[in-house]
Amino acid sequence: MSNTRTNYLYSVIYRLSICILPLIVTPFISRTLGAQGNGLYAFSSTVACYFIMFSKLGLESYGNRSIAFCLNDEERKRKTFWSIYSIQVTTSLISCALYIVLVELAFPENILIYRLQFLYVLSALFDVSWFFFGIERFRLTTVRSLLTRLLIIIGTFLFVRTSEDVPAYTLVMSACFLLEQLILFPFVFRHARPIRVSWAEIRPHLLPNLKLFVPLLALSVYNWMDKLMLGIVSGKDEVAYYAYAESINNLPKGIVLALGTVMLPQMSRLAVEKKLSAFRQTLKGAMTFICFVCCMMCFGIAGVSQVFVPLFLGEGYEPSIALTVYLAFVMIPMSLTDVLQSAYLVPMELDRIYIRSVALGAFVNLALNALFIPPLAALGAVLGTIGAALAVFFYQMSRIRGIYTLKEAWGSLWPFLICGAAEFAATYSLGRLGMGPLPLLLIQLAAGGGVYLGMTFVLSRTCRKDLRSLFVFFQPGSAQGGTPS
User: Do residues 108 and 235 share a domain?
Assistant: First the structure.
């Protein structure tokens, strides 16, 4: 198995561990804590996420890229890591202090919940996963994540018993997030022994890091601001309906995001080596593959939501059904955008396009949220997310048409839209059968997956023979060779 394929497999497992394992406890938590308790946890967690974001700035992309650039130079790699991590320590300590002050002043009515979330905020101080992604050590991060997610499951079933146990659930989640980073941190010393770095070595990383923080700040508007606005305007119940619909869609989204995590260091090396032919070939292969995956997931979730959501969440979450369907279709533009960013904009250091695109998305999302959340509540937040995702995608495509055009993107997408529509028709129509929800769901999944894969196979043998090479960019040498163009 090639290195890229292995890394992608580990990255998928890592992303799935983030999404699947907590979702194992969701049916229990949704019924035990209720919409109000779950809404309170989701709201407080969103507040904590903002401070974590300020702790790490743009390290998820900048740190990963910087380490990948100097992968073959051990001394430079050491200096780069400790210079960047020095910035992270400073920003994390400042964020922790500001968080303590804010929650004491702004949330006195639920102060215990926010104090427990401090452990989550503190975890950013020790989060060095960006370094291991940069050196392509995906197995280590995967094993760590699986372990801590298992502890979340055990802790939740042991300590959460009634609707009054929101503090216990918060403690389990935040403590495990902190433990996850503490487990990984000591392994840094095996790959980058401590070295004293000067201000002159730290300073060059500040501005590029801040540049990549700007898009993250903008992205947070349509990742988290919708929940904050819902909590303030429409109440904690609406936050719960929306958060659960989002969490259901995060499972397949994790599979898609895994590709971007793997592609970034690989594409960064190709950019440095100026192997532009291989770069463009790999980008096109990645876009086709992601269209295949995201359409299958998107239409599949939309088709089974009527059966899956009540089975998964229990009574009282009926509003989440429609929200799950609408949010599923956001997956398509968001997935394509993520590949463009991770496999092209960030490796090629086109930070200005990246920043402007997500700033546009943030503005569109904020405007639509302000317009639609008051009258439509959670549905208004969905409309804001859809509008933002489309705005970002079309802006980025307009700026990179020299290497990848909208026509090429549509050429990769339309076959899978057809396959997905057939998948949706099959799963949705089967949902009307009169039988128990669990066997019905299994029948829907089998039928929908069979229809999608079958139609893809037919298209690859008839009008779209190029689809036979869907996984070409995972072959050894597909992203390693090439000549400068």
Answer: no
- Do 148 and 231 fall within a single domain? no
Q: Is 471 helix (H, G, I), strand (E, B) or coil?
A: coil
Q: How many CA atoms lie within 13 A of 463 on its CB side?
A: 9
pLDDT digits (tens, 9 = 90+) for 302-329: 999 999 888 888 777 788 888 899 989 8
235: which 2 tokens? Answer: 């109440």
Under DSSP, is residue 307 helix (H, G, I), strand (E, B) or coil?
helix
Phi, psi for 9 (deg, rounded to 5):
-60, -45
Q: What does the DSSP 8-state code read for residue 224?
A: I
CA 89/CA 172 separation, integer angstroms:
25
Phi then psi dihedrals of residue 377, to 5 deg:
55, -125
CA distances from 435 to 78, 174, 352, 357, 427 (A): 60, 40, 54, 47, 14
The helix/strand/coil state of 451 is: helix
Structure-derived torsion over alpha carbons of residues 176, 178, 184, 189, reported in degrees to the nearest 10: -160
Place of tokens 């359409």: 295
Range of the domain at 302: 211-407
CA–CA separation, 415 and 413 (whole Å): 6
The verdict on 149 and 173 lying in the same domain is yes
Q: What is the pLDDT of residues 192-223, one digit of tens each?
A: 787 787 788 788 877 777 776 776 666 666 66
**Measured distance CA(312)–CA(80) in Å, rounded:** 46
Tokens of 296: 């299958």
Is residue 326 a part of any domain in this protein?
yes
Give which of 354, 309, 307, 339 is closest to 327, Cα–Cα.
309
CA separation for the pair 175, 271 (Å, rounded): 39
The three-state secondary structure class of 75 is: helix
* pTM of structure: 0.66
In sequence order, which ranges of 203-275 are alpha helices (DSSP H)?
206-220, 226-233, 236-272
